[in-house]
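User: Predict the structure for this protein chain, please.
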Amino acid sequence: MQIPDSGPPGRPQSRRVVALGGGHGLHASLSGLRRVTRDLTAIVTVADDGGSSGRLRREFGVLPPGDLRMALAALCGDDAWGTTWSRVIQHRFAGAGASLEDGAAAGDGPAAGDAGLAGHAVGNVLIVALWELLGDTVQGLDWVARLLGAHGRVLPMSAVPLDLVAEVEGADPDRPDEVSIAVGQVACATTTGRVRSVSLIPADPPACPEAVQAIGAADWVVLGPGSWFTSVLPHLLVPDLAAALVGTRARRLVALNLAPQPGETEGFSPHAHLEVLADHAPDLAIDVVLADRAAVRGATAELEKAASLLGARLVLADLAVGDGSPRHDPRRLAGAFAQIFEGE
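Assistant: Here is the predicted structure, written as structure tokens:
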């Protein structure tokens, strides 16, 4: 199925939508989805161990807040209140170590014991402050969402911080067939080898109960786009969350990336992303695979076959921004989501 570049829909819809992921990919999907539904919940990965998030996680024993913050920023409205608060919570304090980004190598910027604010995002500090005051992770996120006037709710995928473990092939260029282990989100995302699979520590983490409930009540569940091994697939490895995804009556949509990511999915074809997803969640059926028309040019037949093996139909649309960079355009995503939702 081909969707024309029709722009965003004219009015929000009432469907209950749950979006899973993390980082910039989830930010893109939420920026589109908030334009087409009044009932939107983001379920966010909590395995970041680098940058500002990593420092706060280590110093305070909390969930890493960075991906949660980015999801909240994406849900801010386009009015003056929303755009201002989005900029505020995304603002990063300047000073020594100000280049410290969430997801950066854990050793970047100030030392782990440094109490300075340099490099920290305002939203990260605000979220952790509310967690300390309220003693409740979900309640704290709900209060931030109310402050921002967010068009939706943000939940962590697990009640505890997680660590990623990846099987990597060829990390040592002198031993291209050797399989090694990378531990931590930063190590998994920046490996020079080819990631074959990913798992979690702890292996049986508790899911956020509100996240499980949201999936059970949803009309649509959206996976991706985003860092495949470190933002998308981890949701499928939390047992209660995976069971909810398999058992929900919601329709399931997978949104593919515009390009492979250096290190993590280097050399991956579009259909390889679906094959890896099937390997990690063999019981999960998919209804729709959404892909950018230009990104899959020349590989449409293979992608259509991979989608059909998951039970899905392939939908192609123009989803990228117009400057040629591999970034999703929120309004184009909104238009594609709306047409898919309305057509079902």
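Residues 6-12, 104-113 have pLDDT under 50 and may be disordered.
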